[in-house]
Amino acid sequence: MGTGVQRVEDQRLLRGQGAYTDDLDVGPGLLHAAVVRSPHAHARIVDIDVDAVLDVEGVHAVFTHEDLSGPMAEPLPLLIPHPALTHGRTQYALARDEVNYVGEAVAFVVATDRYVAEDAVGRVRVTYDVLPAVVGIEAARAAERLVHDDVPGNLGARLEQQVGDAPAAVAAAPHRLSLDLDIERSACMPLEGRATVARWEPALDRLQVWTSTQSSTGVRAAVAVKLGLDLGQVDVITPDVGGGFGLKINHPWPEELLVPYAARVLGRPVKFVEDRREHFISSAHERGQVQHVEVGFDDDGRLLGLDVEFWHDHGAYTPYGLIVPIITSTQLLGPYKPGAYRVVFSSLYTNTVIVTPYRGAGRPQGCYAMERTMDAIAAHLGKDRAEVRRVNLIQPDEFPYEHHLVFQDGRPLTYDSGDYPAMLDKILALVDWDGFGARRAAAAAEGRRLGIGLACYVEGTGVGPYEGAHVHVETTGKVKVATGLTSQGQGHETVFAQLVADELGCRFSDVEVVTGDTRRMPYAVGTFASRAAVMSGSAVHLAARRAKEKALRIAADALEADEDDLQIVDGVVSVKGSPETALDLGTVSVLSNPLRYAFDEASKRATQFSVGDPGRPPVAEDDEPGLEGRDFYSPERATFASGMHAVVVETDPETAEVEILQYAVVHDCGTLINPLIVEGQIHGGVAQGVGGALYERMAYDDTGQLLNASFMDFLMPYVSEVPDGIDIDHLETPSPLNPLGIKGAGEAGVIPSAAVFAAAISDAEGFEITAMPISPSELFALRQAQQSP
After folding, report:
1. Considering the chain, what is the average pLDDT of its residues?
2. How much is the pLDDT for 759?
């Protein structure tokens, strides 16, 4: 623990030996599915004519909503209810009566291959009565048209939280400012989009599902309920996942139900893999919010009152509840003491793709609001931006710090640990903040425009309710570890092996980790909210401890020694100071399982005739056979990581292009398990943050058509646009909430990106940036507007 161990999964993945869902061979007779999707953002379904499809050679079935019954015909689940979500709505697996966004699933075709299935999709004739579409927050707020007839004002939810009287505090403050800030929609672009394969085994009365998900156990539960199966009849296995980023925590997607449904009906394996256009128009987006800030402060820039209202575009349905805007409303505060605080948000329906968390999950929007506010305060007072932040920071002796708000997990928003002033010192040193004026002046003498930006954030990580782990020592001495959450490239096979090697005392190379397989660990929640290391890492640690305790107990009996006198080093249990008195863990595993039958030399030593005291049962009442440990970790509340980013940019005076000259990150995720992997997470997050700040957006027209639903039009940063090197420093303030002192790190790189780039570009240009992302053409237009009389 604490060392930069090379990732064990990389050898397999880099050599092309990984397997996405689409790569799986699930046996003969595989059928392929394609989906008829609505071309309209809002329309009533008048008729669906499939007659022209039924006689197409190779087509095995066409399903519409009329073909579904029971739970399958009901709306998809609203996964996270909330009292404020008074008008929650979810779609059907296949649209019934009405479609509410371009791309909504209308019919499901199953054929011998994808080519035939796609041809058949083109022959399905759907008659629509097109309705006016509601696109964008402004149109939703106007409520001249409704997405759902039974949702007044397009308002799915309104939630307010407050501490003190913020409006009064703002009004009474010596200084006051108002800001209006926008962030547009964006979306993740995983290597493999949504993908599901299912096989029904009639002889076993059992369903096997392989799906690219962030919650194997969640998909399992949903499939069982919708198909009327017992939970024990469904296995869900997650292969290698080519990126999740929050998109794949939503479950079940319509296809995750329709594929197993079709497999069971047809008695053949069925596969669906979305294509890239389907990903754009029918998966999920995020980020779109309009934010209004009223702030009051004193002569030093200290916050006295903060009053925030924002409007969140959650798309046509709300399967994932209010998680994103709740996170914005609470994480907006960052590392600061806000004085009196009031926040209210409205979550609005539009005829666009649904919103689910995307790496950062509401935090980038909140960070953007708070950090732009800090910069505005500094500009108003003529003070250094870093010093305004410093006077507002929570101090190290104030932890745990209670904000008196409710976080996304329904628990108090209480920061557990941190040292924000020390972090600020580190980030200012990394970018030579105090010396930047000379650097800017030297560039200006050459006709170049440089700007520097700073942004700070706090990230709630490791939310509950729980995760579990199972550690099993084989008779070979190999250690098999299973945890129910899934992996999407985070390095779980490495970090969990590190934890087991440390706690159990085995060799790191002897540990094998399996994730996302309900056959190995049926109880789990999922991979999201930077929770894997905190939740499963803690569970793995505790399970390894249980296995170690049992190993020492068995070895003590076999070696006729006291447990306290034993140690486990490199997979060998020995008496301290007497290394010759020893057993390897494989032998201990043999002894842990008294057998009636001997199958080999090892098992011969563990028969009931050669193990244990004849005066007691071979397996004690309070014990069980096998050398293994199983445990669960359930925290009282989330733990809070934190960080600060700084960037130096150059804006071209003619083309308005933005070039990144330096990027620096200081991050505190508590105790570091593997610094190499944490820094990899930061690099990946920064790359996505650059995309979100400078390139990526979802552009809809007024009719709800997505205008840039391809990589020809949707811009993502290439390696040439991502910083060559990122200056990274770490701060470790261990969390008191879990046995390892861990905090999450998965979303750290992306959270402050919009804020830090807006700050740097504003600094370079001399005027404020209030809408993100920003393109060169938009920056050029802002320049022109500044020059207009």
Report:
1. 96
2. 98
Answer with the one of 260, 282, 304 that is the final residue of a domain.
282
Residues 739 and 663 in one domain: yes
The type of residue at 638 is A
At position 695, the amino acid (one-letter code) is: Y
Model confidence at 619, pLDDT cuts 50, 70, 90, reads confident
- Locate 788 and state its tokens: 């207009």
Can you give the residue range of the structural domain that contains 526? 467-633
Phi, psi of 413 (to 5 degrees): -80, 90
Does this model's pTM top 0.70? My answer is yes
Task: State residue 609's pLDDT score.
Answer: 66
Regarding whether 552 and 644 lie in a shared domain, the answer is no
Which region holds residue 476: left if phi is over 0, alpha if psi is between -120 and 50, else beta? alpha
What token pair was written down for 80? 């996270």
**Number of domains forming the structure of the chain:** 3
pLDDT per residue over 650-664, tens digit each? 999 999 999 999 999
Closest CA to 375 of 723, 728, 754: 754
**Which single residue is written with the structure tokens 């989009």?**
193
Q: What is the predicted pLDDT for the residue at 727?
A: 97
What DSSP string describes 262-295? HHHHHTS-EEEE--HHHHHHHS-BB--EEEEEEE
3-state secondary structure of 587: helix
783 and 653 in one domain? yes
For 144, other C-beta atoms within 10 Å of its C-beta total: 10
Mean pLDDT, residues 539-559 taken together: 96
Domain shared by 625 and 684, yes or no: no
Query: Considering the domain boundaries, does residue 538 fall inside one?
Result: yes
Asked if residue 586 and residue 473 are part of one domain, the reply reads yes
